[in-house]
Design brief:
The two termini are 33 Å apart. The protein is globular. Helices cover 37% and strands 24% of the residues. It is of the alpha/beta class. The chain has 5 helices and 8 strands; from the N terminus they run ββαβαβαββββαα. The protein has a single domain (2-112, 143-186), classed as 2-enoyl-CoA Hydratase, Chain A, domain 1. Helix 2 (54-64) links the parallel strand 3 and strand 4.
Length: 187
């Protein structure tokens, strides 16, 4: 987690899921870092996250929901890409709903309406191992092959060669311009 005060933004890299207890243990530290930064914007980056325990993702959202300094109307952003799978895709969809997040990046690599939470068993005669999903999650109303971003932002080949995260830089510039426009409108 980094505080980028030049952009009035805190960035959380959520590229893997910690144990739920670990996240809950650090919740106060996360809140304090965001509070101390004074940032009004929050970027949660799920790019490249293959999934984990989506309840841990819900715990993160619960951890930050009490921070009144954040711009809950236009200042929460969730980054995603084709590597955003399983629970990461689920949390991305949930954050759009419960945090009013703007989705940024490229389409996820998973269907937002999925059967999940496998139950494993062994067939009696063949001894083959089988899994079957026990729950269905519908995160968007219409059928889709992916969760699509509100703002498409990607890293170009030139950025990649130079070691720059072009999508994140585009988002930070978007946030900076949005905040400037808000200030000018208020004057």
């Amino acid at each position: 987690m980094n505080a980028g005060n030049d952009y009035n933004t805190v960035y959380i890299n959520f590229d893997r899921y910690p144990e739920s207890e670990q996240l809950q243990k650090h919740c106060e530290g996360i809140e304090n870092t965001i509070r101390d930064s004074g940032a009004r914007n929050l970027v949660i980056d799920f790019r490249g996250n293959p999934g984990g325990d989506f309840y841990t993702g819900l715990a993160l959202s619960a951890c930050i929901q009490g921070l009144d300094q954040l711009d809950w109307r236009q200042g929460i952003f969730v980054m995603m890409d084709s590597g955003t799978q399983s629970a990461a895709m689920c949390n991305t969809a949930q954050y759009q709903q419960i945090l009013n997040a703007t989705l940024v990046g490229s389409p996820t690599g998973a269907d937002p309406n999925i059967a999940s939470e496998a139950n494993y068993f062994r067939l009696k005669n063949s001894k083959r191992s089988v899994s079957i999903s026990k729950r269905y999650y519908g995160f968007i109303e219409s059928p889709s092959d992916a969760l699509y971003p509100d703002l498409t932002m990607t890293t170009s080949w030139e950025d990649y060669k130079e070691g720059r995260d072009g999508a994140l830089l585009q988002l930070l510039n978007f946030i900076r311009d949005k905040d400037r426009e808000s200030i000018m409108t208020a004057l």
